[in-house]
Amino acid sequence: MADSSQLKSDTLMEQMKLHLSSDAGKELIKKIGLVYELHIAPKKLGFNEKIYVVDLKKGEVKEGNYEDGKPDATFSFTDDDFLKIATGKMNPQIAFMRGAIRIKGSINAAQKFTPDIFPKPSKM
User: Fold this and answer.
1) What distance in Å separates the CA atoms of residue 33 and residue 19, rounded to the nearest whole number?
2) Which one, 11, 52, 70, 102, has the greatest CB density within 10 A?
């Protein structure tokens, strides 16, 4: 299997793990309570994707497919587009209309997938 090497998103996913254990993260879990599977491709959708599960029921982020049934929504995007969406630089609805995101699953669940669920990047 091809190594998807380092994605810029990997750092954000590590921060997300810490964020979910914080008070703000615990509020998210109570408020959203959904499971998202993210397919993040280095350059082109569908190729060398790295898969993450953001479980806002249990409050965890894991690499690999979701194993407890079906996720509430599955997203596919490139590494750059994912970061733009997660940091609030790109509106998720506009990204979807432009074809920058592919979504499977519940549209209601997908609409709750906003930049607010991600930790704010720390300023260096």
Assistant:
1) 15
2) 52
Tens of pLDDT, residue by residue, the chain (124 residues): 344 468 999 999 999 999 999 998 999 999 999 999 999 999 998 899 999 999 999 999 999 999 999 999 999 999 999 999 999 999 988 999 999 999 999 999 999 988 888 887 654 3
- Rounded distance, CA 75 to CA 82, Å? 10
CA dihedral 21, 27, 33, 36 (to 10 degrees): -60
pTM of the model: 0.89
The enclosing domain of 89 has a CATH number of: 3.30.1050.10
